[in-house]
């Protein structure tokens, strides 16, 4: 595992923000644009705040989302809404370069439309991990774990809802995959994933870079970590 451990969630988010800015500058220099998929969760909120004042070539950044709830874009549960109020309202990304998953549409239609507008390859996909080991909206026991293609509508019975999500095929096709995981509640599952135990969806993400705080990493072996201050 490529693991970086930081003291607090704030430190973890700041490190991820710095890596985001660096990856954006590198992608723009090499390919003329940076195509990145954002995720939901609490750690990205902290990352968004850190990114506001960083040197990022926003005019060349294209924003996507790795998953979305089936809600309107102004709903507080919407991943797009979280990114908008936390980051996009503060930085000069051209509006036409922000591509949201349309959670207000029929889920199957929204998934088809989003798959059609994605670039050939994303530079970075940002992901989180739930206490149950899910990532994006690929939850344990759901049909989406077995589906191919790029974007799917995934029924999540344990949440009594449908979700829109990248498939593992799409996630693993990106140039880089980053998992931002913080909090003691994540530690037991993360330790099992590190040992190759269990059948957690997040284990299907190929060769990710893990950005962890000390609480999430508490049950990992000390060897193999890159500890940060």
Automatic annotation (TrEMBL):
GO BP term, pick one: carbohydrate metabolic process
Pathway(s) it belongs to: Carbohydrate degradation; pentose phosphate pathway; D-ribulose 5-phosphate from D-glucose 6-phosphate (oxidative stage): step 2/3
GO molecular function: 6-phosphogluconolactonase activity
Catalytic activity reported: 6-phospho-D-glucono-1,5-lactone + H2O = 6-phospho-D-gluconate + H(+)
Key word Hydrolase present: yes
EC number(s) reported in the record: 3.1.1.31
Keyword Hydrolase tagged: yes
Domain (Glucosamine/galactosamine-6-phosphate isomerase): residue spans on this chain: 8-206
Keywords: Hydrolase
Pfam annotation, one family: Glucosamine_iso
PANTHER family per UniProt: 6-PHOSPHOGLUCONOLACTONASE
Physiological role: Hydrolysis of 6-phosphogluconolactone to 6-phosphogluconate.
NCBIfam families linked: pgl
Record family assignment: Belongs to the glucosamine/galactosamine-6-phosphate isomerase family. 6-phosphogluconolactonase subfamily.
Protein name, as recorded: 6-phosphogluconolactonase
Organism phylogeny: Bacteria, Thermotogati, Deinococcota, Deinococci, Deinococcales
Name of the gene this protein is made from: pgl
């Amino acid at each position: 595992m490529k693991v970086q451990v930081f003291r607090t969630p704030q430190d973890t988010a700041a490190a991820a923000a710095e890596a985001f800015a660096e990856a954006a500058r590198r992608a723009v220099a090499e390919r003329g644009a940076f195509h990145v998929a954002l995720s939901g969760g609490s750690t990205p909120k902290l990352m968004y705040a850190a990114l506001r004042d960083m040197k990022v070539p926003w005019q060349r950044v294209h924003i996507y989302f790795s998953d979305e709830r089936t809600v309107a874009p102004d709903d507080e549960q919407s991943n797009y809404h979280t990114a908008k109020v936390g980051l996009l309202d503060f930085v000069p990304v051209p509006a036409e370069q922000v591509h949201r998953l349309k959670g207000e549409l029929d889920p199957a239609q929204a998934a088809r439309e989003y798959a059609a507008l994605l670039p050939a390859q994303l530079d970075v996909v940002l992901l989180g991990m739930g206490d149950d080991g899910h990532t994006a909206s690929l939850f344990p026991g759901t049909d989406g774990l077995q589906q191919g293609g790029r974007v799917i509508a995934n029924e999540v019975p344990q949440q009594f809802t449908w979700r829109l999500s990248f498939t593992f095929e799409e996630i693993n096709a990106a140039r880089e995959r980053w998992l931002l995981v913080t909090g003691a509640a994540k530690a037991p599952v993360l330790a099992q994933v590190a040992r190759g135990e269990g059948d957690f969806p997040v284990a299907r993400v190929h060769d990710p870079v893990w950005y962890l705080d000390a609480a999430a990493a508490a049950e990992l072996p000390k060897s193999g970590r890159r500890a940060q201050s």
